[in-house]
Amino acid sequence: MKMQTTQASPDASQLGTATGDMAQSPARAGFDQRLRRAKMGSGVAVAIALLVTSCNSDSNSTAEAQSPATTPATTAAAPATTLAPATTAAASASESLEATRLATARPKLEALTAALAAGDLEASHDALEAYDAVWNGNEIYIQYRSLSTYLKLEADLQVAIEEGLASDAPNFAEMKTISEELSAVFEGSIAAAEQGPALNPLFDDLATVRIIRADLRITNAALDDGKVEKAAEYFATFAENFFNDAYPLLKLRNEESAEVTEIAVDDAVAAFADATKSAEDLASLTGKVLSEYNYGVGLVNAAARGFDPSKTELTTLDLIRLSQLHDVRILLLKSMKAWTAGDFDTAASVAEVAGTRAFDQVKPALIAKGADGALKSLLDSYVALAGAAGDAKEVGDANRAAVRAIGVAEQAILGQFWADAEVQEYVAGLPDVDSLT
Predict the structure, then answer these.
(1) What is residue 431's predicted lDDT score, i.e. its pLDDT?
(2) pLDDT of residue 45
C-alpha cells in the first residue's frame, strides 16, 4: 500500500517513480566537470502554498522577539533532527542551531550596507540577493517567534531597499540608513533566539530545506536573466545539498513525493551538463524542481507548525484521524477515475461526499491545527469541476492539489510522530490507492 500517493491527474507521467537507488542515478553520475566547475510554480504549488500559509498565524508565537533573525550564508545544512521529534529540545536557544544560523546574516547585511554606502548599484543588488537567500532560509524562526518583527524586516525594511534599488534615481544615502536599521532589528532577533526558549526541533528541519532551496531560487532568477553559467553554479550547489541533506527529510514526510523531486533534479542535472540546452530549456526543468520541492517544504512546514510540546505520546484517536483523512483521499481518487472515464455523475457524487461528509469527520481536528479552511477550499475547487466535461489538465490539477493538501493536513495533525514505527505501520495498513491512479 502506498498511502502517500499524490497524483490523480490524467497526466500521471508527472509522478513517475525513482528508477533506482539514489546513489546510482544515471543523471547524477553524469554530473560532469562542466557543471562542477560552473558548479512559483504551477497552480498546484500555489494551491498548496495557501494551505501552508493557513498555519502561519502569530497565535503560534512562543515569544515576542524584538528583532528579526537571519539565515545561514551557505546551504550546507545541519543534520536532520526529525528522527526523535516527540519532545522539544532540552538545550537552551543560545546553544541551538537557530541562533547559529541567524547569525550568518550579519556579514550579508554588512556587505549590503557597505555597497549602498559606496553607491555601487550592481554590488548592492548582489549583496541584497545574498542576504535574501540567507533570509529566506531562516525567516521561519523569526516569523514563529514574532510576526510583527518578521513583517518589519521583510515587508517594511527589505522592500524599501528593493524599491529604492529599482528606482530611476536610487537614493543610496537613504537606503544605507534603512540597511542599518535592518541590521539593528535583525540583531534584536538574534538576541531573542539566544535568550528565548528553544523552538521545537522540526523547525531546524524546516530551516534546512528552506536554506537548501535558496540556491534553487537564485538558479531560476539567473535563468530568467539568461545567465546560464551563474545558474549552473547555484544549481550544482543546490543539487549536492538536496541529495545529501534535503532528500532524507523530504522522504521521511512522503517517500513518493521525494522520489518525484529526485527525478526532477536528475533531469535538470543532466540538462545542465548538455551545452546545447538554452536558458529557456533549463528554466522549464528547474521550475518543475521548484514546484515539486516546494510541496516537500510544505509538508515539513506543516509538521513543524503543528508540533504540540504538551503531546508526549501517540493516541488511538490520532491514528483514527489519519484514517479519516485517507478516506477523503480515496474518495478523491475514485472521483478522478470516474471523471477520466467520462462518468461525470459518479465523479460529482463521490467528490461531493469527499468534500462534505468525509471531510466533516476530521474537520474538528483540522480546526484545532488551523488546517481546515485551505483544505476545504481546495476540495470545493475540485468538486466544482468534477460534475462535467472540461479541460483534463485543469480538472486533474485541481484533484491533485486536493490530494496533496491531505498530505499537508496529515503532517499538521501528526507530523511530530510521523517517524514512529507505529504510525508508519498504521499508514502502511491503510487501504491501497495505487489501483486508482
Answers:
(1) 87
(2) 40
Question: Closest Cα partner for 87 from 318, 424, 416?
Answer: 416
Stretch 392-413: mean pLDDT: 96
pLDDT tens for each residue of 349-379: 999 999 999 999 999 999 999 999 989 999 9
Rounded to two decimals, the pTM is 0.76
Q: How far apart are CA 419 and CA 80, in angstroms?
A: 12
Note the pLDDT of residue 433.
67
The mean pLDDT value for 378-394 works out to 97
Contact 262, 428 (CB under 8 A): no
- Main-chain phi, psi angles of 175, to 5 degrees: -65, -35
CB count in 10 Å sphere of residue 171: 12
Question: 144: which 3 cell numbers?
Answer: 514563529
- Cβ-Cβ contacts under 8 Å for 296 (sequence gap 6 or more): 209, 246, 249, 250, 253, 254, 257, 258, 261
- Tell me what pLDDT residue 316 has: 94
Q: Distances from the Cα of 133 to the Cαs of 218, 242, 260, 345, in angstroms? A: 8, 16, 25, 49
Rounded Cα distance, 91 and 145, in Å: 17
SS3 315: coil
Return the axis-axis angle of helices 373-386 and 43-53, rounded to nearest 10°.
Answer: 150
Decide if pLDDT at 177 tops 90. Answer: yes
Cβ neighbours of residue 155 closer than 8 Å, sequence gap 6 or more: none
252 within 8 A of 176, measured Cβ to Cβ: no
Our CA angle for 286, 287, 292, nearest 5°, is: 95
Closest CA to 189 of 129, 245, 134, 145: 145
Average pLDDT, the chain: 82
Distances 333 to 236, 251, 340, 403, 436 between C-alpha atoms, Å: 37, 22, 11, 8, 6
What number of other Cβ atoms are within 10 A of residue 155's Cβ? 10
Rounded CA-CA distance 282/215 in Å is 15
- Spatial distance between the Cα atoms of 256 and 16, rounded to a whole number of angstroms: 9
Residue 89's pLDDT is what?
39
